[in-house]
Task: structure prediction
Amino acid sequence: MALKNITVIGAGTMGNGIAHVFAQTGFRVILVDVNAGQLEKAVQTIRKNLDRQIAKGSLTQEQKQRALANLSTHTVIATGVAEADLVIEAATENIDLKLSIFTQVDQAAPVGAILASNTSSISITKIAAVTKRPGSVIGMHFMNPVPVMKLVEIINGYATSQETTDTIVDLSKQLGKIPCVVNDYPGFIANRILMPMINEAIYSLYEGIADVEAIDTIMKLGMAHPMGPLQLADFIGLDVCLSILHVLYDGFGNTKYAPCPLLVNMVTAGKLGVKSGEGFYQYKQDSKDWIVSERFRK
Result:
Protein backbone atom coordinates (compact mmCIF):
# COMPACT_ATOMS: atom_id res chain seq x y z
CA MET A 1 0.00 0.00 0.00
CA ALA A 2 1.49 3.35 -1.09
CA LEU A 3 1.15 6.09 1.49
CA LYS A 4 1.36 9.69 0.28
CA ASN A 5 -0.86 11.85 2.49
CA ILE A 6 0.00 11.91 6.19
CA THR A 7 -2.00 13.61 8.93
CA VAL A 8 -0.37 14.17 12.31
CA ILE A 9 -2.70 15.03 15.19
CA GLY A 10 -1.10 17.02 18.01
CA ALA A 11 1.39 19.85 17.42
CA GLY A 12 3.49 19.41 20.55
CA THR A 13 7.12 18.29 20.68
CA MET A 14 6.49 14.83 19.24
CA GLY A 15 3.86 15.92 16.72
CA ASN A 16 5.96 18.67 15.16
CA GLY A 17 8.97 16.34 15.04
CA ILE A 18 6.97 13.63 13.25
CA ALA A 19 5.52 16.19 10.81
CA HIS A 20 9.05 17.53 10.18
CA VAL A 21 10.45 14.12 9.26
CA PHE A 22 7.59 13.18 6.92
CA ALA A 23 7.58 16.59 5.17
CA GLN A 24 11.35 16.48 4.72
CA THR A 25 11.10 12.98 3.23
CA GLY A 26 8.65 14.18 0.58
CA PHE A 27 5.23 13.26 2.00
CA ARG A 28 2.29 15.67 1.98
CA VAL A 29 1.67 16.42 5.66
CA ILE A 30 -1.25 18.04 7.47
CA LEU A 31 -0.52 18.91 11.09
CA VAL A 32 -3.72 19.16 13.15
CA ASP A 33 -4.22 20.79 16.53
CA VAL A 34 -7.29 22.49 18.03
CA ASN A 35 -4.98 25.26 19.28
CA ALA A 36 -4.04 27.60 16.40
CA GLY A 37 -1.29 29.16 18.52
CA GLN A 38 0.27 25.76 19.11
CA LEU A 39 0.25 25.11 15.36
CA GLU A 40 2.03 28.39 14.70
CA LYS A 41 4.61 27.56 17.36
CA ALA A 42 5.09 24.08 15.85
CA VAL A 43 5.77 25.45 12.37
CA GLN A 44 8.28 27.92 13.82
CA THR A 45 10.01 25.03 15.60
CA ILE A 46 10.17 23.02 12.37
CA ARG A 47 11.65 26.03 10.53
CA LYS A 48 14.25 26.48 13.27
CA ASN A 49 15.19 22.78 13.21
CA LEU A 50 15.49 22.78 9.42
CA ASP A 51 17.80 25.81 9.70
CA ARG A 52 19.92 23.86 12.19
CA GLN A 53 20.25 21.07 9.62
CA ILE A 54 21.33 23.61 7.00
CA ALA A 55 23.93 25.03 9.40
CA LYS A 56 25.29 21.51 9.94
CA GLY A 57 25.45 20.89 6.18
CA SER A 58 22.95 18.02 6.20
CA LEU A 59 20.24 19.97 4.35
CA THR A 60 20.13 22.58 1.58
CA GLN A 61 18.00 25.72 1.45
CA GLU A 62 16.09 24.20 -1.47
CA GLN A 63 15.33 21.05 0.52
CA LYS A 64 14.09 23.19 3.40
CA GLN A 65 11.69 25.06 1.13
CA ARG A 66 10.40 21.78 -0.33
CA ALA A 67 9.80 20.39 3.17
CA LEU A 68 7.87 23.50 4.23
CA ALA A 69 5.85 23.38 1.00
CA ASN A 70 4.81 19.83 1.90
CA LEU A 71 3.43 20.99 5.25
CA SER A 72 0.05 22.55 6.03
CA THR A 73 -1.91 23.00 9.25
CA HIS A 74 -5.52 22.58 10.33
CA THR A 75 -7.55 23.01 13.51
CA VAL A 76 -10.37 20.56 12.69
CA ILE A 77 -9.75 16.81 12.91
CA ALA A 78 -12.50 15.74 10.51
CA THR A 79 -11.30 17.86 7.59
CA GLY A 80 -7.65 17.31 8.46
CA VAL A 81 -7.93 13.54 8.00
CA ALA A 82 -10.39 13.53 5.07
CA GLU A 83 -7.75 12.56 2.49
CA ALA A 84 -5.22 10.84 4.73
CA ASP A 85 -3.56 7.54 3.84
CA LEU A 86 -2.06 7.45 7.34
CA VAL A 87 -3.11 9.29 10.49
CA ILE A 88 -0.60 9.48 13.36
CA GLU A 89 -2.00 10.61 16.71
CA ALA A 90 0.61 12.38 18.84
CA ALA A 91 -1.56 13.94 21.53
CA THR A 92 -0.95 14.01 25.28
CA GLU A 93 -0.50 10.61 26.95
CA ASN A 94 -4.09 10.48 28.20
CA ILE A 95 -6.26 7.45 27.44
CA ASP A 96 -9.59 9.30 27.35
CA LEU A 97 -8.22 11.93 24.96
CA LYS A 98 -6.74 9.29 22.68
CA LEU A 99 -9.95 7.27 22.57
CA SER A 100 -11.91 10.42 21.70
CA ILE A 101 -9.49 11.29 18.91
CA PHE A 102 -9.55 7.80 17.42
CA THR A 103 -13.34 7.71 17.49
CA GLN A 104 -13.44 10.97 15.52
CA VAL A 105 -10.68 9.92 13.13
CA ASP A 106 -12.29 6.56 12.41
CA GLN A 107 -15.50 8.29 11.36
CA ALA A 108 -13.80 10.87 9.11
CA ALA A 109 -10.74 9.16 7.58
CA PRO A 110 -10.95 7.21 4.30
CA VAL A 111 -11.89 3.54 4.64
CA GLY A 112 -8.43 2.32 3.64
CA ALA A 113 -6.46 4.65 5.89
CA ILE A 114 -4.13 3.29 8.56
CA LEU A 115 -4.55 4.80 12.03
CA ALA A 116 -1.42 4.95 14.18
CA SER A 117 -0.68 6.20 17.68
CA ASN A 118 2.61 7.60 18.91
CA THR A 119 1.67 6.48 22.44
CA SER A 120 4.58 5.35 24.58
CA SER A 121 2.57 3.03 26.83
CA ILE A 122 -1.22 3.01 26.26
CA SER A 123 -2.76 -0.17 24.85
CA ILE A 124 -3.10 -0.22 21.06
CA THR A 125 -5.71 -2.94 21.45
CA LYS A 126 -7.83 -0.66 23.63
CA ILE A 127 -7.44 2.21 21.18
CA ALA A 128 -8.32 -0.03 18.21
CA ALA A 129 -11.47 -1.25 19.98
CA VAL A 130 -13.18 2.15 19.59
CA THR A 131 -12.76 1.99 15.80
CA LYS A 132 -14.41 -0.06 13.07
CA ARG A 133 -11.02 -0.94 11.59
CA PRO A 134 -8.97 -2.61 14.36
CA GLY A 135 -6.85 -4.41 11.78
CA SER A 136 -5.64 -1.05 10.51
CA VAL A 137 -4.69 0.37 13.92
CA ILE A 138 -1.06 0.20 15.04
CA GLY A 139 1.44 1.87 17.36
CA MET A 140 4.19 3.99 15.81
CA HIS A 141 6.26 5.17 18.77
CA PHE A 142 8.92 7.65 17.66
CA MET A 143 11.75 8.74 19.97
CA ASN A 144 12.50 12.33 20.92
CA PRO A 145 13.95 14.32 19.17
CA VAL A 146 12.24 12.72 16.18
CA PRO A 147 14.44 14.21 13.42
CA VAL A 148 17.55 12.82 15.16
CA MET A 149 16.58 9.53 16.80
CA LYS A 150 16.58 6.47 14.52
CA LEU A 151 14.29 4.10 16.41
CA VAL A 152 10.60 3.60 15.73
CA GLU A 153 8.95 1.12 18.11
CA ILE A 154 6.09 -0.45 16.13
CA ILE A 155 3.36 -1.98 18.28
CA ASN A 156 0.94 -4.61 17.03
CA GLY A 157 -2.44 -4.55 18.73
CA TYR A 158 -4.34 -7.80 19.18
CA ALA A 159 -6.12 -7.35 15.82
CA THR A 160 -3.46 -5.50 13.80
CA SER A 161 -3.13 -7.12 10.37
CA GLN A 162 0.17 -8.30 8.93
CA GLU A 163 -0.39 -6.02 5.94
CA THR A 164 -0.66 -2.99 8.24
CA THR A 165 2.52 -3.98 10.09
CA ASP A 166 4.47 -4.57 6.88
CA THR A 167 3.32 -1.22 5.48
CA ILE A 168 4.42 0.70 8.59
CA VAL A 169 7.77 -1.15 8.76
CA ASP A 170 8.48 -0.22 5.12
CA LEU A 171 7.35 3.35 5.73
CA SER A 172 9.66 3.72 8.74
CA LYS A 173 12.58 2.61 6.58
CA GLN A 174 11.62 5.21 3.96
CA LEU A 175 11.99 7.84 6.69
CA GLY A 176 15.52 6.62 7.41
CA LYS A 177 14.42 5.05 10.70
CA ILE A 178 15.06 1.61 12.16
CA PRO A 179 11.76 -0.13 12.98
CA CYS A 180 11.45 -2.69 15.78
CA VAL A 181 8.17 -4.61 16.03
CA VAL A 182 6.78 -5.51 19.47
CA ASN A 183 3.49 -6.76 20.87
CA ASP A 184 0.90 -4.84 22.85
CA TYR A 185 1.55 -5.21 26.56
CA PRO A 186 1.92 -2.40 29.13
CA GLY A 187 4.90 -0.16 28.35
CA PHE A 188 5.74 -2.24 25.26
CA ILE A 189 9.56 -2.71 25.37
CA ALA A 190 11.12 0.78 25.53
CA ASN A 191 9.22 2.00 28.56
CA ARG A 192 8.76 -1.37 30.26
CA ILE A 193 12.54 -1.42 30.66
CA LEU A 194 13.30 2.31 30.86
CA MET A 195 10.70 3.48 33.39
CA PRO A 196 11.59 1.04 36.20
CA MET A 197 15.20 2.21 35.83
CA ILE A 198 14.18 5.87 36.09
CA ASN A 199 11.87 5.06 39.01
CA GLU A 200 14.71 3.22 40.81
CA ALA A 201 16.99 6.20 40.27
CA ILE A 202 14.34 8.45 41.86
CA TYR A 203 13.96 6.00 44.75
CA SER A 204 17.76 6.09 45.24
CA LEU A 205 17.58 9.88 45.55
CA TYR A 206 14.45 9.71 47.75
CA GLU A 207 16.15 7.27 50.15
CA GLY A 208 19.30 9.39 50.37
CA ILE A 209 21.62 6.81 48.84
CA ALA A 210 23.20 9.36 46.51
CA ASP A 211 22.62 12.86 45.18
CA VAL A 212 21.38 13.86 41.71
CA GLU A 213 24.82 14.37 40.18
CA ALA A 214 26.23 11.13 41.59
CA ILE A 215 23.32 9.02 40.31
CA ASP A 216 23.46 10.49 36.82
CA THR A 217 27.27 10.43 36.62
CA ILE A 218 27.44 6.78 37.68
CA MET A 219 24.98 5.77 34.97
CA LYS A 220 26.71 7.88 32.31
CA LEU A 221 30.28 6.85 33.07
CA GLY A 222 29.62 3.36 34.41
CA MET A 223 26.95 2.21 31.98
CA ALA A 224 27.83 4.38 28.95
CA HIS A 225 24.41 6.07 28.97
CA PRO A 226 24.51 9.39 27.07
CA MET A 227 22.28 10.97 29.72
CA GLY A 228 21.66 10.07 33.36
CA PRO A 229 18.22 8.70 34.32
CA LEU A 230 17.19 11.73 36.37
CA GLN A 231 18.00 14.20 33.62
CA LEU A 232 16.40 11.91 31.07
CA ALA A 233 13.25 11.93 33.21
CA ASP A 234 13.34 15.74 33.10
CA PHE A 235 13.56 15.69 29.31
CA ILE A 236 10.75 13.13 28.94
CA GLY A 237 8.58 15.06 31.42
CA LEU A 238 8.05 13.87 34.98
CA ASP A 239 4.29 13.89 34.39
CA VAL A 240 4.77 11.56 31.42
CA CYS A 241 7.01 9.27 33.47
CA LEU A 242 4.38 9.12 36.21
CA SER A 243 1.63 8.38 33.69
CA ILE A 244 3.61 5.50 32.16
CA LEU A 245 4.41 4.04 35.58
CA HIS A 246 0.69 4.11 36.39
CA VAL A 247 0.01 2.19 33.15
CA LEU A 248 2.66 -0.41 34.10
CA TYR A 249 1.43 -0.70 37.69
CA ASP A 250 -2.24 -0.98 36.69
CA GLY A 251 -1.46 -3.34 33.83
CA PHE A 252 0.73 -5.81 35.69
CA GLY A 253 -0.43 -5.29 39.29
CA ASN A 254 3.19 -5.60 40.42
CA THR A 255 4.50 -3.28 43.14
CA LYS A 256 7.88 -3.02 41.41
CA TYR A 257 6.19 -0.52 39.05
CA ALA A 258 4.73 1.62 41.85
CA PRO A 259 5.82 5.26 41.30
CA CYS A 260 8.25 6.69 43.85
CA PRO A 261 6.49 9.12 46.26
CA LEU A 262 9.07 11.79 45.37
CA LEU A 263 8.04 11.60 41.71
CA VAL A 264 4.37 11.88 42.68
CA ASN A 265 5.07 14.93 44.84
CA MET A 266 7.14 16.66 42.17
CA VAL A 267 4.41 16.24 39.56
CA THR A 268 1.79 17.45 42.04
CA ALA A 269 3.95 20.52 42.70
CA GLY A 270 4.24 21.24 38.97
CA LYS A 271 7.96 20.43 38.79
CA LEU A 272 7.78 18.54 35.49
CA GLY A 273 11.32 18.89 34.17
CA VAL A 274 12.40 20.83 31.09
CA LYS A 275 8.84 21.79 30.10
CA SER A 276 8.25 23.62 33.41
CA GLY A 277 11.83 24.87 33.81
CA GLU A 278 12.57 22.69 36.83
CA GLY A 279 12.66 19.04 37.80
CA PHE A 280 15.75 17.34 39.18
CA TYR A 281 17.61 20.13 37.39
CA GLN A 282 16.79 23.77 36.63
CA TYR A 283 16.69 24.91 33.01
CA LYS A 284 17.03 28.40 31.54
CA GLN A 285 14.63 29.35 28.74
CA ASP A 286 16.24 29.31 25.26
CA SER A 287 19.47 27.98 26.74
CA LYS A 288 21.17 24.60 26.80
CA ASP A 289 22.54 25.27 30.29
CA TRP A 290 21.23 23.52 33.38
CA ILE A 291 22.11 23.13 37.04
CA VAL A 292 20.92 20.77 39.76
CA SER A 293 17.65 22.01 41.22
CA GLU A 294 18.17 24.07 44.35
CA ARG A 295 16.05 21.59 46.31
CA PHE A 296 18.52 18.78 45.62
CA ARG A 297 21.79 20.65 46.09
CA LYS A 298 24.05 19.66 48.97
Notes: Residues 282 and 291 are 5 Å apart (CA to CA). The chain is about 45% helix and 15% strand.
